[in-house]
Specification:
The protein is an alpha/beta fold. The protein contains 13 helices and 14 strands. The radius of gyration is 22 Å and the shape is globular. Among the domains are: 102 residues, Methionyl-trna Synthetase, domain 2 (Beta Complex); 96 residues, no CATH class. It starts with a strand and ends in a 12-residue tail after the last helix. The chain binds zinc ion (ZN).
């Protein structure tokens, strides 16, 4: 088994393309860049399709009688990559057959060992569509807009974290050399003590085999299973999921029971947001005579920098980072020194991202990238 393999935290299949919203691809690009440095084959891109927005989009579609939900999600996913190529490692979603099988397998074991339980709890259900809302104030149904709901009791899949340790610890975060933002732990620890892991959705990992008719696994738990399923497929014992700090804070509690399975142990590689609006300006590349490295900068270097700047890359840093990349690109050695390359691979595996602003290490990484047919192909000889 490979030790560390990076996977993107499943991205919500919303209405956008990567060309329009390059920030949505940051986790995907980061995982690609680090796997390539490690000399690994491309892994599948992971997508989150268990969303209420997806339910609504499908119900409202004029062609819903001829196009099934799965097909609709798939078509929307493929369109994300246009006009670029589809990913070499393929696409996987959080409702794929392997994910559903693994999720049920894991949930059964977690029920058997008492980590999860099925409990009958009071819930608020929409009287028209049966949508399960929180127990907070009643309002219009988020699923169908109906204004009436009723409180009733229903069996639910729950994770009572009272008996569980912290839902997020330092060792759940991959990487050395930078402490994770402390607010991350605070938010994760403020999740409710009793977490409901079953939801009413039209699409998802069906929990009917566990006696929970009409319910699916909460997508915040399911996206961890999607990563583990992809890791199992490529034989990765230590899958590392790239995710923004905020997203990690929101999903960590739900994913806590789903981060270990067999020999596999999932950890998070945190990254900050990238100010793509500042990095998109053509003027920037003219001023710095850096047009040749624009794609390299936006699609490879900035995602790597975002893993170092976990609180987000400041827009004012963009010109300096571009200058650094351009210089390192000009200075890249034909054959990177072996010891430097070994050190760089060690850092890529351990998630030590300090090298991204070290000119010598960066030049070496650029050189190594061109040796393999990297995610965007070799750039040597490009204008
Ligand atoms: Zn409703």
């Amino acid at each position: 088994m490979n030790s560390v393999v990076y996977f993107n935290g499943p991205v919500q299949n919303g209405d956008f393309t990567f060309a329009q919203r390059p920030g949505k691809a940051a986790g995907v690009r980061l995982a690609e860049a680090l796997n390539a440095l490690l000399g690994l084959e491309p892994v599948p891109h992971l997508w989150n399709t268990v969303t209420l927005a997806g339910d609504l989009r499908h119900r409202r579609a004029a062609d819903r009688d001829t196009v099934g939900r799965r097909q609709r999600e798939q078509e929307a996913l493929v369109a994300k990559y246009a006009p670029g190529p589809a990913p070499r490692g393929g696409l996987r979603t959080d409702t794929d057959h392997q994910v559903s099988c693994l999720a049920l397998e894991m949930t059964k074991e977690l029920l058997a060992d008492g980590t999860l339980t099925v409990r009958e709890l009071p819930v608020r259900l929409c009287t028209r569509c049966g949508y399960l809302a929180g127990m907070g104030t009643a309002g219009h149904c988020r699923s169908c807009g109906h204004g009436d709901s009723q409180v009733t009791r229903r069996p639910l899949l729950v994770f009572d974290r009272t008996a569980h340790g912290p839902v997020l610890g330092q060792d759940d975060v991959h990487g050395t050399g930078a402490r994770p933002p402390s607010h991350l732990f605070t938010i994760a620890h403020h999740a409710p003590q009793l977490l409901v892991l079953s939801r009413t959705r039209d699409h998802g990992v069906d929990l009917a085999p566990l006696g929970l008719e009409g319910m699916v696994l909460d997508p915040r738990a399911g996206l961890h299973v999607a990563v583990l399923a992809a890791a199992r497929e490529v034989g990765a014992a230590w899958p590392v999921m790239t995710v923004t700090s905020n997203a990690a804070a929101n999903v960590a509690a739900y994913g806590a029971p789903f981060r270990r399975y067999g020999p596999m142990r999932l950890r998070y590689a945190l990254h900050g947001k990238i100010p793509y609006e500042s990095a998109a300006s053509d003027r920037l590349y003219e001023v710095h005579r850096a047009r040749a490295v624009k794609d390299l900068f936006t699609g490879w270097y900035l995602p790597l920098c975002a893993a170092r700047e976990r609180a987000g890359i400041s827009a004012v840093r963009i010109p300096a980072l571009l200058k650094l990349l351009r210089r390192a690109h000009l200075a890249r050695p034909v054959d990177p020194p072996g010891d430097l390359l070994t050190d760089l691979r060690h850092r890529a595996a351990t998630g030590d991202m300090r090298w991204v602003t070290d000119a010598r290490a960066l030049a070496c990484a650029l050189s190594a990238r061109e040796d393999t047919s990297g995610p965007m192909g070799p750039t040597r000889g490009a204008p």
